[in-house]
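Open question from group meeting: does this chain pack into something compact, or does most of it stay loose? Before anyone orders reagents, we agreed to write out a predicted structure and look at it together. Recording both the input and the output here so the notebook holds the full record.
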Amino acid sequence: MSGRTEGGAVERRPWRLAFLASALAAVLPTSAFAHASDRGHVLLLPTGYYIAGGAFAVAVSFLVLALLPPAALDRFWRRRLPLFAFGDGPRTIVSLLSFAGFALLVAAGLFGSRDPLSNPLPLVIWTLLWAGFTLLQGVFGDLWPWLNPWYGPWRVVSWLAGKSEGETQSSRLPRQLGLWPAFVLFFAFAWFELIDPAPDDPSRLALAAGVYWLFSFVAMLAFGYEDWSKRGEFLTIFFSMVARFAPFQREEGRLGLGWPGAKLLVVEPLPPSGMAFLLLALSSVSFDGVSKTFFWLGLFDINPLEFPGRTALIGIGSFGLVLTFVLLTAVFALAVFLGQGLAGKGHSFGGAAGLLIWSIVPIALAYHIAHYLTALLVDGQYALVAVSDPFARGWNLFGTADRMVEAGVVAGAQSAWWLWNLQAGVIIAGHVLAVLIAHGLAWRLHPQPSRAALSQLPLTLLMIAYTVFGLWLLATPTAG
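Structure tokens returned:
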């Protein structure tokens, strides 16, 4: 399939049309194009073995940790390889370039092709930013402070206004709000991505992205850049949480290489608003997978083979998004409460939950990667094509406009096998690492190893159940 578009229509070779229509119906543009959970094939694999294996891996990791001395694991996590030092000098320039690129993308959304696979705005936001950049954050650390499109313009405006460094960094956002502004904005983002009838429509997305940038920029001017970035701007908060898992970490201007998740063991407990934010990150991607399963649609007497489209499911989707968040929050709270009861008193429920919630980060990252993997592999190629011709004018700015999009990378028996096993492996690995990190955090609460192990029994059972749930999502039939 050629990436070149004419008037918003993607050229297709006839001999591939039938194949793509049947094998990739959920990867090509539908009413829910932006979501990688819309798989183009149903995997009839021996899923019972995979589910049992995933649950067994998490359970064994708990038994091993219960027997290993805390000092040995502490030495393991602290190992770090120093690399090189670098400063923040170019940060403003990089951010200004990022803002210029963002402005160009918004213009392309308003004036470019109407085809979501030809317009770079939905491809960059949903595929390269939300799916791909999250993966980069989880591997290479916090790159977002350099690339976000607010820092550079904010520095320029502050300089023009003659504000000193102290004035620009002063906090004016009430502390009582916590991270609730970010939670509300993150929920609105999740609703737009998962429930809105056309989140990939270029002009609709351009309006939403432009309004959000302007709103956040005004908030940064009003409340201070640092304060709003850490408590109100949900992308910055989400990316910074994910970056704590990365093996590459920067400390005092020097980059170092450590074990994945090591930085999560030295974090401070999150307030209730921060816990809600992290649980929303996991529950939203989980609901995106659940919402198109035959099981979920059958609960509302919807024939999955005659999918009615997103517009008909706005009410059901909104209810499901809230329900998934509430259920996950309740189950997590119950697991922490029971665990602290088994270990004995000594820490408040809020303090224990605020610390142990950080063990959710590897799980949320693993689900994010597994969930969006197919979109990243296919739609990422469309993005390379679209950025060379952002306004569908026949341009070839980066030499990729005529690139052949190989959608078959996720089709066929062999591709299905390695794709599913990669997704399953990511989910299992994420849960095993979550158990490791949860035990490290538990030892901060209960220095006695036996009490720390007892406190983690309910949370480990929850992680085993979530492993089974995640692997079931990968194999169950879906519609839409």
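Observations to bring back to the group:
The first strand starts at residue 5 and ends at 6.
The longest helix spans residues 413-445.
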